[in-house]
Every structure is written in C-alpha cells, then in structure tokens.
Design goal:
heterotrimer; A alpha+beta; B alpha/beta; C alpha/beta; A: alpha+beta; ten-stranded mixed sheet; two-stranded antiparallel ribbon; 9 helices; 12 strands; 33% helix; globular; B: alpha/beta; seven-stranded mixed sheet; 15 strands; SCO2522-like (chain B); CobQ/CobB/MinD/ParA_Nub-bd_dom (chain C); ParA/MinD_ATPase (chain C)
Chain lengths: 323, 326, 305
C-alpha cells in the first residue's frame, strides 16, 4: 500500500510470524460464519473467497510497539511503529494469524509524534540505522525478553479468535499448532522473488527466508508464508497421527477412530498456492521439487486410505478362525 | 503480468470516495443547559462566533480562489434529551440568521454513536491503536478491555508477588514529553446496566472523523446528509435524520480540514479529542483519497489526522458561566 | 482433560505422585503436558530430572507468562532433556511428555484480570493440543488454587472437562486438612461456587488421593511386635472412620499410593526398571500408580457417589 502522506518509506526487510492451528469447533465454519469470526473491525471488510477453496481473510489491525529489535549480534536497536496482524481461516477449519512488519534502512534519531506512525501501517522504524542482517537472524532465532515479539502479537490475535462466542470450543481431534517465522530481504524492483531456505525445527517451529522485489507488497509475502505454513501444518499433523505406532494395537486406539477425523477434516484441504499472489506462486516450485510437499501429501493420503480399506477386509487369521 | 480472468467481488473490497469541501466550520454545539438559558444565550453565542467565522473564511481565501466552505451545527440528543426538533431548529436558525450566519448541516449527537443503524462509535473504537510507551513489545492489554486511553505511561500498578520487591510511587509519563510530562488519561466509555455510554470526547472524535471524510462502513460512506423536505421539523428527535442538510449549499459536509468554534470551557474535551484522534488507525482507503485530492488542489492536508482539526475557543458569552454556577 | 492437583499442605506427595501419573499416561500413548503452578516453590523440574533445562528457562516460565512478561511460557520436552538415563529412551508408541516449569524467582501472586486471561488462554490452548494436562497447584488455599477455580469458571472453559485431585497423607491431621481444603470454609467448593461453579458439578469433579499410606498387611511390617501390629491396624481403622466422617471416605477416593521409600526419599519418577531390574521400588507402588493413572479418565470413578 502506498503511504498516503509524508515521504514514501522504502523497506529493506520484512519480518513476520505465522501461527497455524485447528479451529476449535466441531463443525467447519461456512463462509458467513468465517466472515463473522474474522470481523476484527465492525466497519471493515473480511475478504471471503469461495474458490478454489473457502478462504477468509480478516482486515489487518495494528499493534503499536516501541522496543528493541531482536538482533543476532546483540546490537541494541530501538524501533517504533505499528505491527500489522491478521487472521485467516481456510475451509472453515484451519485458523492462522500472522503478525508482520516492514523495516526501512534507517529512521529518525528520535521518536516522531504517534500520528505519523499511524499513517504508515505495518512499518516499524529504527531510531538510527537498521543492522539488517543481524535483525533478520534475530527474528528467526526469536525475540528475547522485552524485544519486538511478533509471535506474541500473532498469538494474542489467535487467542482472541479462539475465544469468539461463535465457536463451540471443541476440537474434533487433538493437534499441535505450528509457528513459522519468516524474513524477506527487499531486492530491487522488477526482480524475481526467491526462496532462500525453509527450515523445519523441533517443537512445531519453522523458519523461512525470502528475497522479495520492492514492488511486491509485504502483505503478499505474508500470504505466501501463510499458505506454506498451512500446508506444512497439514503434513506435520497428519504424519504425527499416522506415526502413532500404537495405532490399531490391541490396547491402542482403533485405526478408524484416529484416521477418521483426518479424512473428514483434513484430506481435502490440500490446495497449494490457491490464494497466493501470482508474483510469488513460483516459490512453491522449489519445495515441490525438494522435499516434494505434494508428493509427501499424496503418499500420506494413500497410506490413510489403505489402512482404512484394510479395516473393511477381515484379517487372514480372523477369516480362518471363522471356518 | 496478465489480468486475472476470474474474480470474486467479496475477495476484493473497495473504498468509495465522498465529496469534500475545503473546510468544515462548526458554528456551535448545543447542550441542554444552553437551551435552558434561553434564546438570548444563543444570540450572544452566534454574535461572538460571527466575528471568528469571518476570520476563518479569510484564512481559507488566502489559500484558494474558489473556497468551498460548509457550516454545521451539533445538537446533543445523546446525553440528555430536551425540546423537539420542531421547536428547537427554527429557533436556532433564526438566531443564526440574526447574526448573519447560515447553518448548512445539522447533526444529532447520537448519530456519532449510531447512525442509520451503523454503530459508528463502536467501529471507531475497533480502530484505536494506542501510542506505545517505550518498552512496549506487544504485550499491553488493548484499550478495548480497559476503556481508557492515555498519552503515555500510567503510574505502574503491578500486583506484587509474595515477598516481591516493594516499589515506591512512580509518576506517570507522557510519551512525547519534552523534559516534563503533561499526562492525560481519557475515559472513552462507561458501562451501566450492561449498556455502554460513550464519553463526550469519544463522540466528538467520531464527529471530527465524519467531518474530515474519513469514516466508512464496509467501504461505503456513512452519515450521508439527508435534505429535509417536509414543512415542519418532527416532534421527536428519532424522526430527524442523523445529518440533515438545511440549505442548498454546493459545499459538501466533509472537508479536508475542520474548524470548530466553541466556548473555552470545552478546551479539555477537545484536547482529549486530539489525544484520541492521534491514536486512531483510520480507513487507509479514505485517508489515501483525501490526501490525493487535497494535494491535487494544491492544499495538501497534514499527515497526522489530528493536525487537520483547528479550533477557536472564545470567552463564554456574558452571564453564561454565572448561570452555570447558579 | 485437565487435572488439577491440589493438596492441603506441603509434603503430601502431590508433585511426585502427579508427575508419576503424567509419566504413566505418556507411557500409555497419551500426549501429556505438566504445568508447574506451584508458584512458591516450583519443584516439578527436579522430579522429571530436567533441572539443567529448567535453569535455562528461568524468567520465561509460567510465572513470567501469567504476569504478562513473556508471550509464551517456556516448555521442556522431558524425553529429550531429562538427565534420567531410562527416561531418555522412551518406548515406541509413547506420547509426548512436556513440562512447563515455574520460575524459581517467582512467588505467589494475586489473580488479576490479565493474569486470569493469560491462564485461560493457556489452558484452552493446551486442552486443544494434549490428551491430558496436569496442573500442579501450590499447597493449601493458595493463589494458584484461586486462579484455577477462577479460570475454569469462565464461560470460555465451561465445555472443558476439568477434574481435581486432592492429595493428602494418611494421618489424622492430613485427613482433616484435606477435607477442609475441599469442603471447608474458603475451600475448593466454597471458593468455586463463589466464582460461578455449579456446586454439584464441582463436588463430582473432586477426588482424593491418599499418599504414603502404610499398609499394615505389607511384608514391610512383618517383623513388628504383635502389640505394634494391633496398634497399626486399629489406627488405620480409626483413620478410615475419620475419613468417612469427614466426607473423604472410600467413595471419594480415587486411589492410594503405598508408603514407598523411593518416592519419599528420591522424589522422582518410578520407572519400570526401578521395579523390575534394580528392584529398588515396590511392585505395589508401580501398580497403584498405574491404576490411578487409568482412573483419571475412567468415568466410572467419577460418577456421583
């Protein structure tokens, strides 16, 4: 979005964190309910898209910050501005929230009047120079105490949404949320966006680095990260449920009990780049090539269907014993 | 990049623009006590205001050859209900005319809370983004939970842990302080019997945003003026439109800038209004439209919204303050 | 399911027993999260033998989270971080076992609206993620108990199954104190009702766990004199009567854990190795813990008496 007034500000770094979890509701929400859930502002639109998958995106709301930036080299950089936060719901089932900011190369030496920050939503200005590389690494590593904490801001929105009166606050199955931290370094206008790396760490933590041409809006990068986070969550969650090695054991949960929710609630959610800005869609290709996100998903889907199909067939010894 | 063939309108919302004058001048704000003081009070008020209105017009003339100035008047029907439109409006118009003033638009204060079934105040409340005191990294409880908005850091109140450190009193601190603080904490609403009563400064902030052409509801304009076609004004405030056009003026209700003329006892309220305006994240589409068009006319607006509102605080007409004390 | 572990006073075996229950459930395949809400003296990390990992999280634990200093409480994957050699190699098929430690530098604090909101958010979030969430509360009528009651009374948490275990030792003083904590003035039920809980529902969600119960029939006491033996039997009987009179009788008891030197002195998890290989712990203790762990979620034991 062009800043409406004041000198335009060119960002050199965009950072964000996406949280992905199952919506605490036994039934998936329809488009209307999704719009109601995500109406963070009474007077603002919730974008609802029905095709190719049902996807609702809240308006962006702002959180004001004035704090240190996480910096890998320990540099103390104070920054002031607003963090943009938004919520998204896919197929009425998967809930995500993203907090993200753009950072310019340098800012004024003292804090401006607040009204001037408000007209540049989603921009956080350093007081002085921005140590870009150190901050990018710092964001990926995670905020220390008192430092700009995008995860905390994203989690705050998620908690608010999970409390919504519309939800019955029951989940069809237990699952772990994931966190995707991302940084995008700005490149000259007209270039092609690229994915530098995508790292899967433990405890549901993911990290991602991008190169983003100056003409691609930060919101588009946030959208791409949400899409990747969503599909990574699907892989992680489904894999974990299948890996429950007590599945079908005599005293363990039955195969149908565990896998039924996957079939009902998750299998149809796979739809890479469905709502990704066309300028960034190609970044998926890298992950499709290696490790092959969709390949893994197809494989998981096959395994689930096979296991369920086997349930319908009497086992050999059972068949024998019936004679 | 080729244009996408497939579109979904719900996925691509737009913000409609509204007509804009150069300046919106508020000629007065009528409360019950003013009404009860009788027509003489209004007469005094308009006579005093007239002097300043001429000065304000001269100021616009300095910047443009063809000034578009609209005038408005606000009647409180929110905090207390008194009289009826049928009785009150002709009297107000008569007294204004006597002073040589024309009122183009008349608004009801309750319209700043709810207009045409749209909860304007509530919407504006959702757009509050607090100015973060140093050390804010995203953990402060949002104002929507407290109902108070400050211009800095309050005196800290933290429940102490058992055997925790004992701290003495610490002063509040204005975030934008120069050497010393002028700390202000504004109550935005109160709750009684489950009903929310918006505070006067908060409704006045909504009023300023409306006059600055910065309010939308789902992209559509709100508080659109309605011409009063009937002969007599209604006998019930609820039957009067939220915003009524009283003349055939070409100047739009909303404008790039506002000027509000009021007795100096409202200074604190309007200071609170500025504090609120400084912490509202207004509709980006609307903000952009106003910025672009004002710049196109060679009179660009200040970036910060609160800077677009100016005031004249004049001395209370004689006898008014005495009447209040009595 | 949420399990709140309360006790009348310290030293009732609350932490060590509830940690063992969490361990048993994780071994049985459940994903379990253990929250150390013992704000005054968080010790769960010692029981799980993750002291080093806990040290690294100090200042970012539950205490800091609840008072709003950090966005998320630190957590420790017990299987990965424990210094206990056996726990480091959990059997295939077991669930996750996660500890959210307290902060040593913390302390008891009163419940404010913000603390409460953080608490509700956390419990809800964990409820959606874990099969079992065990919350270890500070002893007595503590702020931790207060917060747990207040949180579970919030409309957001009405749908959630929460159960209360009151741990006590098998002595006159402890039996009376446990009954008072549950049923007495400013007790769990009175406090819960004052915060909006339904009295019957809350009463039905409380069970007692007798810890460190000496069994007069145990071979441990086979060498005592007939007089001593008779006295023990009589005292045990008296205690049963007292418990019954105080409303903490048989029907309100979820289970008992026998007097076990390993639990008393080492305050650690009892593994199958301890029972089978090194035989330092008693088979009976293992079985009692296993039974108790099963009963946590077995509705049969939670029906109205």
């Amino acid at each position: 979005m062009p800043s409406p007034s004041g000198p335009p500000t060119h960002s050199v770094l965009v950072c964000g964190e996406v949280r992905t979890c199952l919506l605490p509701s036994l039934q998936a929400l329809d488009g209307r309910a999704a719009a109601q859930l995500l109406r963070l502002r009474a007077d603002d639109h919730v974008r609802v898209s029905e095709r190719p998958t049902m996807y609702a995106l809240s308006p962006e709301v702002l959180t004001g910050v004035d704090c240190g930036l996480p910096a890998a080299n320990g540099a103390k950089v104070r920054a002031v501005g607003t963090v943009a936060v938004r919520g998204a719901l896919t197929e009425g089932r998967l809930l995500q929230s993203t907090a993200y900011v753009s950072l310019p190369a340098a800012g004024p030496d003292v804090r401006r009047p607040w009204g001037q920050y408000l007209v540049r939503p989603g921009l956080v200005e350093p007081l002085g120079k921005l140590p870009r590389q150190a901050v990018a690494e710092g964001v990926l590593r995670g905020a220390g105490r008192g430092e700009l904490d995008l995860g905390m801001i994203a989690e705050g929105l998620l908690a608010q949404l999970r409390r919504h009166a519309l939800l019955d606050r029951r989940v069809p199955f237990k699952s772990s949320p994931t966190r995707l931290r991302w940084v995008a370094r700005r490149e000259p206008e007209g270039g092609r966006a690229s994915l530098v790396n995508f790292t899967v760490a433990e405890g549901g933590l993911r990290a991602m680095e991008l190169l983003l041409p100056a003409d691609v809006p930060a919101a588009a990068a946030a959208g791409l990260c949400e899409d990747l986070a969503l599909h990574d969550w699907l892989l992680t969650t489904t894999q974990y449920m299948l890996d429950n090695s007590r599945l079908g054991a005599a005293d363990g949960p039955s195969v149908v009990e565990v896998l039924h929710p996957v079939v009902v609630h998750l299998l149809h959610l796979w739809m890479p780049r469905a709502h990704v800005d066309p300028a960034l869609g190609h970044l998926w290709d890298v992950l499709e090539d290696r490790p092959g996100f969709s390949r893994q998903w197809e494989n998981l889907g096959r395994r689930i269907r096979d296991r369920l199909a086997l349930q319908a067939v009497p086992r050999p010894y059972e068949a024998l014993s019936r004679r | 990049m080729t244009e996408a063939v497939f579109r979904e309108s719900t996925a691509e919302p737009r913000t409609q623009s509204v007509p804009l004058a150069h300046l919106s001048v508020e000629l007065g704000h009528l409360y019950m006590e003013d009404f009860e003081a009788g027509p003489e009070r209004l007469r005094e008020h308009f006579a005093e205001v007239r002097v300043w209105v001429d000065a304000v017009r001269a100021s616009v003339d300095r910047r443009t050859k063809r000034p578009r100035i609209s005038t408005c008047f606000l009647v409180d029907d929110y905090f207390s209900r008194f009289s009826t439109p049928a009785e009150l409006i002709p009297m107000v118009l008569k007294e204004a005319e006597r002073a040589g003033l024309v009122i183009d638009y008349l608004a009801r204060e309750s319209a700043c809370a709810v207009a045409d079934r749209i909860e304007l105040a509530e919407s504006v409340m959702h757009r509050l983004v607090e100015s973060p005191p140093p050390g804010s990294y995203g953990s402060r409880p949002p104002v929507s939970r407290t109902g108070w908005l400050a211009n800095g850091q309050r005196t800290p109140w933290t429940p102490r842990s058992a055997l925790g450190e004992i701290k003495g009193w610490e002063p509040p601190r204005e975030t934008a302080a120069r050497n010393h603080s002028v700390f202000m904490d504004v109550e935005l609403w109160s709750e009684k019997d489950g009903r929310r009563l918006w505070s006067c400064p908060f409704l006045a902030a909504v009023w300023q945003l409306a006059r600055l052409g910065l309010l939308r509801h789902l992209g559509e304009p709100v508080l659109v003026p309605t011409s009063w076609a009937g002969e007599d004004f209604p006998h019930d405030w609820d039957r009067l439109p939220p915003l009524t056009r009283l003349t055939d003026t070409k100047a739009a209700f909303s404008a790039y800038r506002t000027c509000t003329l009021m007795p100096n006892r409202f200074l604190a309220v309007e200071d609170a209004v500025r504090l609120i305006l400084d912490q509202i994240d207004v509709d980006a589409g609307a903000l952009d439209q106003v910025a672009t068009r004002s710049a196109g006319e060679g009179m660009p607006v200040p970036a910060a919204v609160a800077q677009r509102a100016t005031y004249v605080f004049y001395e209370e007409p004689g006898g008014a303050s005495a009447a209040e004390e009595a | 399911m949420l399990i709140f572990a309360a006790s009348d006073k310290g030293g009732a075996g609350r932490t060590v027993t509830s940690a063992n229950l969490a361990y048993h459930r994780a071994m049985a395949g459940d994903d379990v999260c253990y929250l150390d809400f013992d704000f005054g003296s968080p010790t769960a990390a010692t029981v799980f033998e993750v002291a080093d990992a806990r040290e690294a999280t100090d200042g970012r634990g539950l205490h800091a989270y609840l008072i709003g200093e950090v966005g998320e409480p630190a957590w420790i994957d017990v299987w990965a971080k424990t210094e206990h050699p056996v726990l480091r190699n959990p059997p295939p098929g077991c669930g996750r076992l996660v500890l959210m430690p307290g902060d040593v530098s913390g302390g008891e604090f009163a419940t404010s609206d913000d603390n409460l909101r953080h608490c509700v958010d956390l419990l809800m979030k964990l409820y959606y993620e874990y099969d079992l969430v065990v919350v270890d509360l500070s002893a007595g009528r503590s702020y931790a108990v207060d917060m747990a009651l207040e949180a579970t009374a919030q409309p957001e948490m009405r749908e959630i199954t929460a159960r209360w275990l009151v741990f006590h030792r098998w002595t006159h003083k402890h039996v009376a104190a446990a009954a008072s904590l549950a049923f007495g003035v400013r007790g769990i039920i009175a406090g819960g009702v004052a915060r909006g809980h339904d009295e019957e529902a809350l009463r039905g969600a409380i069970r007692f766990v007798r810890a460190a119960v000496p069994d007069p029939e145990s071979p441990l006491w086979s060498q005592v004199s007939p007089t001593q033996s008779a006295w023990m039997r009589k005292t045990d009987g008296d205690l049963r009567q007292l418990a019954s009179a105080q409303g903490v009788g048989y029907s309100q008891v979820l289970g008992s854990v026998p007097l076990e030197p390993v639990l008393q002195w080492r305050e650690q998890l009892i593994t199958a190795e301890d029972v089978v290989d090194s035989q330092i712990a008693n088979q009976e203790t293992w079985q009692a813990l296993s039974r108790l762990a099963g009963r946590l979620t077995d509705d049969k034991y939670w029906e109205q008496a």
